[in-house]
Amino acid sequence: MVRNSNRPTYYADVESCVENILSKVGKNIVLGIPIGLGKPNQLVNEFFRRATKDPTLRLKIFTALTLTKPQWKNGLERRLVEPLSARIFGNYPELDYISALERSQLPPNIEVAEFYFQPGQLLHNSHAQQNYVSSNYTHVVRDSLDSDMNVFAQLISSAKQWENKTYYSLSCNADLTPDLIPKMRGLEKSGKKIAILGQINPELPFMYGDAQVPSENFDAIVDHPQYAFKLFGPPNMAINPSDYMIGLHASALIKDGGTIQLGIGSLSDAVTYLIKMRHQYNAVYCALLSEANVLGKFEKMIHNVGGNEPFKEGLYATSEMFVDGFMQLYRSGILKRKVYPHETLQRLLNENKLSHQISPAALTRLIEEKIIHPQLSEKEVTLLQQWGIFKMELKYQNGFIYPPNEIPIPADLADSQSAEKIYRHCLEPHIKGGHLLHASFFLGPQRFYNFLRGLKKEEREQFCMKRVAYVNQLYGSEELKRLQRKDARFLNSALMVTLNGAIISDKLEDGRTVSGVGGQYNFVAMAHALVDARSIIMLRSVREKHGEIHSNIIWNYGHTTIPCHLRDMVVTEYGIANLRGKNDREIIIALLNITDSRFQDFLLREAQKAGKISKNYQIPDDFKDNYPARLKKHLRPYKDQGYLPEFPFGTEFTPEEIALTKAFEAIQTMIAKKRFPIPNKHQLRAILSAPEIATPYLQRLQLDKPTTMKDKLMQKLVLYGLSQTGAM
């Protein structure tokens, strides 16, 4: 890209910035903003404010995963949620467009199009549903430009200086911007009026890799302390027994020395915790596998695909999303397999012909492999420096290596005296430039952001932010990626799976979008393209809706995210179904074996009616006890010993908030079922006259001293909920 010394223009307020952009680009704005955390909220709000005031200004916002603080539905919920939200999210400024969208109050001159929703948030919103863009993550750059995007704005970190040049970091969102910017500049050269904007938030950690960009990438940057705000940090949610069992099965499919992808949420947290248990408390982990009969049912599959031993070589992560779980694995000494941006070097490491620790033997091996010659050339010295084997400060000239402040050394490894000097003065202690993780965007709780901010530069560089076109597919540097991503296990979640192995993750069969495709298809396809990789779809076997239990393993469905010909592995709390290469009958049998037993007979009959399985087939006895009670029985002894806690990585919720949340959920379930259990005598006394044990809960809701009839009724309802959940 041609460097432009006139860029960027700096602004101390968003009003001036937006005014000048409108005068440059015009009054038909297609504004692109990143997925998730990287939205420059105040800048976006100013564009939105201008459009609401001026009907002649047309504004289309193209984005994904708009983050919002939790909302309440009634006065009682408000008492719980409002203080919690203020504490956790602080001064995070809400995006005005999403508030108007949720209230169905968008002006006719404003349109919001997203390619990924917060799951379930906009299921009943007609504007959002009509303007949803279904796109693979790797196609979003193309699709956003096809929508005539002419302004792009992103939240960026504070600047750093190197060699008299100013750099910013895209930090949390290196996913699309590195590819968008050059394409938008190309459109600008052809005459299109465009603008690329940055808004600085010093809360963002300075990340490297593709995230590090020169200042002239931006036309304008808004930089003022008034626009610093607390990063959106969704707290970790509780992990229930079903999620832990899914995590137990999935954790045994991870191969030591391999590659892992994770997402966000309690399922991924459960996998992370069980991987840590496998590594740190291996005897306990193996006992749990045995007690839960996981080994009895799936030992051969686990042996072939994963394992149950501690992680000696460790894991490398390639994941579109950098989540809190990777921090946990890093701190536990599991995320430790480094990969390098050099194909030959990576191959030698994979073949154990080189070690990460550098010794004289490494140079001997490189000579044997004909990578270098005993008489080193300038090109070979440069190569060894690029690989991090030789120190970068070395110089080469006329057959000699010049260490700083040292006598020149003949570049001849065949001469013992010269070789000894090269070993002493030129070698690094270990190969440099390795990465533990490649990811495209990040999102997590506040402790995750604190972790990233607290890393020193060399340590932070190990967590390399890359464009999604690099992370989510093999195209470009394919051979290098194949070497890096050995024994990959790509873990994703789904809403439902059909008995022929098709995966439903993004939409309902009536056409409404729950979330989006995101990068799931990318990773499933990549698992099939890599020789030793597996796609692992994690699925809760049942869901509850309006008080009724429904199976998430179903006969068929009117929508598919991942077609059945890309089937691989499916994990529920009841086990593992290995579907790759199997015929339809074998797939049905495998999925029935991990189905909740309340639905097995019905699904079997459906398959038999379709002629997909014999009329006399019966589900094996070992798989007929797929009930939640059995899972709780297996896990209870371990919970009693302090393992498998609800919040294994800590929580921002207080004990009172956790108990109140359970009580509120219980009340909502009773309302949905229209069934309210009659309190026993002890519970009735507690409801009629609040016991002392209820005081902290009532104080948290400011219902300890109710004065109005409404407050008194709310207090009784809370006491009823607490009594039903065993909190008092």
From TrEMBL:
GO process annotations (BP): acetate metabolic process
A single GO molecular function term of this UniProt record: acetate CoA-transferase activity
Source organism of the structure: Nitrosococcus oceani C-27
Domain Acetyl-CoA hydrolase/transferase C-terminal: 444-607
Database matches in InterPro entries: AcetylCoA_hyd_C (IPR026888), AcetylCoA_hyd_C_sf (IPR038460), ActCoA_hydro (IPR046433), NagB/RpiA_transferase-like (IPR037171)
Protein name: Acetyl-CoA hydrolase/transferase C-terminal domain-containing protein
